[in-house]
Amino acid sequence: MKRALPLIAGILSGLVVLAAMFFVPQSGGILAMVLNWVIIVAGVALLVAIASLVLTHLRFIARGKKGFLLSLVLVISFLATLMFGLIRGVDDPVFLKWVGAVIRPIETALLGLVALIMMSAAMKIFRERGWSALTVSFGVSAVIFLILGLGFLQNLNIPVLTEVIRLVETLPMIGARGLLIGIGIGLLMMAFRVLFGMEGSGND
Amino acid sequence: MLSALTINDQLALALGILGLLFLLINLLLLKKNQPKHIPESTKQAVEHLLHVSSEEGKRLVVGLGHALTNASFDLAGASGLSLQRALLKRSLFNDHPLQSYSGDGVLACLSRMVVHGAYRGALASELFSGSLSQLSGTSPLAYTASLTNHIPDAANAGLLLAGQMSPVVLLALDQADRCSIPSISAITSLSGQAAGFIGNSVNLMGEDVFNAAGRLDQHKSSLASLSAQDWLRVAISIGLLLGAILKMGGVLP
User: Fold this and answer.
1) Contact predicate B199/B33, CB 8 Å
2) pLDDT truncated to tens, each residue of chain A (204 aa)?
3) Chain A residues with CB inside 8 Å of B167's CB?
């Protein structure tokens, strides 16, 4: 009974939300209400997760675990941001400026790094996976779409070429749709398993 | 009431009902109808995971992604949880149990429930530690940066990325490659799958992403859903072919 009640409540609410998604006018704002509940629960869950994260790192510091200095940085920066936000308010321009001044350069640097790593990984793929039909077609298509992305060929205004380019540009969509159908099927089955309580919490 | 739905809604509804029907049939007939076809990539990936988590006795790092409720509500973001549960059951009493990192508050809480449930199910609640399932950043970049930082540890034997992730996750895959840690990516987003492909990892694509857990835990519902997936795939293929023929014949507008 202890496990059955939450399961029944979960199944019923899942079915109601599913039905409300298809019959929007008849559902009378159920979706909006449930969405509000989900936002509140998600907010609380985030708070719980953050509290747990901070506690875990405080334990690391107390035990002097390897890499505890990073935990110290995390806790100090978290507390500083929290205090700053509580005192000045989260919409305060000075608060946003200071937080942004720390986060934006780091994120920009990471994105720059991703671009470099992506290029290096694309080169390494031939060394790691060898010259196969898959890797060669990957390399050739990357070069073709790089050239098409420049827009130079499109500006030549040759009708046959324009038609060929249009055809080539639809190819990734075909592949993507194939993958998306597969993901959709997998997701549908997963949704049913979750909806009917077949996905346990590990204790089954 | 149904006439008010668009053609896409009607199609989605029909596919959903068909999927549910196939799942129920497979649940009822499972003993007679074990899924025979499990893609090779999934099988290889699973065997590899078992090897690193059980035989080497080292820690398996699982990245569960950063998108369950962050930007929008996306169930695909929770796809790593079933894998985490299946792997955790085999590494509960290892020297280094499975360690997971989430980039979403709800995902972190659910992941912790999975870890706690696994220990409780094994009657070993006293071994449960909250640090086995951690939140590690609430934006894609913060999450990836934190995950990347956790990879170069001598006790790590493998990296599994399962869930909704952006291509930025290539940073983590590259780090794993540099540390000679084998990695497996079962990412549900298309751009993430592309990153997994070039990131020198065993890369699961399409519905394979959702199959790995079923192969691992051999749970009745997972196996039934694998069979139902196959049936649904056949039904969709027939539908697409039929649609194309009708369209060419001018029957469909």
Assistant:
1) no
2) 667 787 888 888 888 888 887 777 777 777 788 888 888 988 898 899 899 889 988 988 998 888 788 889 989 999 999 999 899 888 889 989 988 898 899 989 989 999 899 888 888 888 877 888 888 888 888 889 888 888 888 888 888 888 888 888 888 888 888 888 888 888 888 888 888 877 765 444
3) 114, 118
Rounded CA-CA distance B19/A24 in Å is 23
Buried b (16+ CB within 10 A) or exposed e, A72-93: eebbeeeeeeeebeeeeeeeee
Q: Is A59 on the interface with B (CB under 8 A)?
A: yes
- Give helix B79-91 / helix B208-217 axis angle, nearest 10°: 30
- With contact defined as beta carbons under 8 Å apart, do B76 and B107 qualify? no
A19 touches B at CB < 8 Å = no
| B117 vs A107, A180, A202: nearest CB | A202
Residue of A nearest to B129 (CA): A56
Residue of A nearest to B110 (CA): A201
Model confidence at B30, pLDDT cuts 50, 70, 90, reads low
Report CB contact under 8 Å: A111, B141: yes
Which tokens sit at B246? 């009708």
Q: Are the C-beta atoms of B62 and B101 separated by less than 8 Å?
A: yes
Rounded to a whole number, what is the distance in angstroms from the first to the last CA of chain B?
24
> Are B19 and A182 in contact (CB < 8 Å)?
no
- B199 vs A contacts (CB less than 8 Å): 121
Q: In chain A, positions 73-92, which contact chain B (CB-CB < 8 Å)?
A: none
The answer to whether the Cα torsion of B112, B56, B52, B161 is positive or negative is positive
